[in-house]
Structure formats: C-alpha cells, structure tokens
Specification:
The protein contains 8 helices and 5 strands. It has 194 residues and is α/β, with parallel strands linked by helices. The protein has a single domain, classed as P-loop containing nucleotide triphosphate hydrolases (Rossmann fold).
Length: 194
C-alpha cells in the first residue's frame, strides 16, 4: 500500500507523518523532495525566486522518478507499506500554480500528463485541508511557495485533484488542534490498513 500525505505548507502533514512513524514501524517512511542529489537541486530551486518554472517542474519530476525507482517501488515489491510526505499530487497542485500565466496551456493537465506514463498512483491520500492564511502563519512564509495568493491557487489545484479522484482522498480538517488532527489521521490510517 502506498499512502501519501498532501496539503499546503503549514497544514500539519509533516507532523502527522512523524507521528505515524511511531505507530507503524513496519512501514517505509519517505518524502519529496528527497534527500538525493535530485532533491538537493529542488531545494536550490525553491531558494531561487527567479527559477524558471518549467525547469523547476522537471527538477521535481526527476526527483519523483528517482524516488519511485530507488525507494517506493522496491519497498512495495518487498511487501512493505510506504507512507510519503508529499508525492505527485504536490507537483500537480504546486507546479500548475507556478506555471499559471506561462506559455503552457492548461498547466494542471500538462503537469498531470507528464507524470501519468511513469508514476504510480497512491492507494490512498490524506489531504490536510487548511486555508492559505493559516498555512502561511504556520509555515512562516519563508520561501516563494509560502505566499497567500499563490497558496490559494495551489489549494484550488488540490480541490481539482479531490474532485477527479474522490475515492482516493481522505480530507482531514487541519485547522483544528494537533491532537484532534492526529486522532483523525490515526483513525483514517487504521481503516485504510484494515
């Protein structure tokens, strides 16, 4: 089983991911961007406000492809459940928002089409839903992706993903206190695993 955690920066998905590691020690826990040299290139791009959005998309895509071949597919082939903090849905929501207004027609469909031939769809995705203002307050607005106007577009992208595949997503109200969110996450994962 491949379980992914998605949401805006500051939504609490990484906190939940860490809590799940203690509860499910048999699972492989991973994240994107990865700690590979591809992930390092992504981190450099995130830090560069002037990075070309198309080039940035392909850095993320290269990191995702490496992640699949190096971590995710081998773990799944061995029968281990995998829990990933961010996955291809992040690319679709975030990079489509970044490409909005560029020369790319329908950035959402374009980014999806790049991933479809090689990516593996998650079996389930927990979506940590939080408004952009709260997300920026929590994340500190430390990089170009943590701005309210931009995150509004990202959230719209996530909503499109949920509309397109409602059976895969479990919406978590991430505006609530950490313990309440953690309880919903644990209950959802327990249901999914059973």
């Amino acid at each position: 089983m491949l379980l992914t955690l998605e949401g805006l920066d500051g939504s609490g998905k990484t906190t939940a991911w860490r809590a799940l590691r203690d509860r499910y020690p048999e699972a492989v826990f991973t994240r994107e961007p990865t700690d590979s040299w591809y992930g390092d290139a992504v981190a450099r791009s995130i830090a560069n406000d002037d990075a070309d959005p198309v080039a940035e998309l392909f850095l993320y895509t290269a990191d995702h492809a490496d992640h699949l071949s190096r971590v995710i597919r081998p773990a799944l082939d061995e029968g281990s459940p995998v829990v990933s903090d961010r996955y291809s849905d992040s690319r679709i929501a975030y990079q489509a928002a970044t490409l909005d207004g560029s020369r790319v027609d329908d950035p959402f469909s374009y980014v999806r089409s790049i991933h479809e031939p090689f990516s593996r769809s998650p079996d389930a995705t927990l979506y940590f839903d939080v408004d952009p203002e709260t997300a920026v307050d929590r994340s500190g607005g430390t990089n170009k992706f943590e701005r309210v106007d931009y995150l509004r577009d990202v959230r719209e992208g996530y909503e499109r993903l949920l509309d397109n595949d409602p059976g895969r997503f479990v919406r978590i109200d991430a505006t609530r206190p950490v313990e309440a969110v953690r309880g919903d996450v644990t209950a959802a994962v327990d249901r999914l695993i059973d």
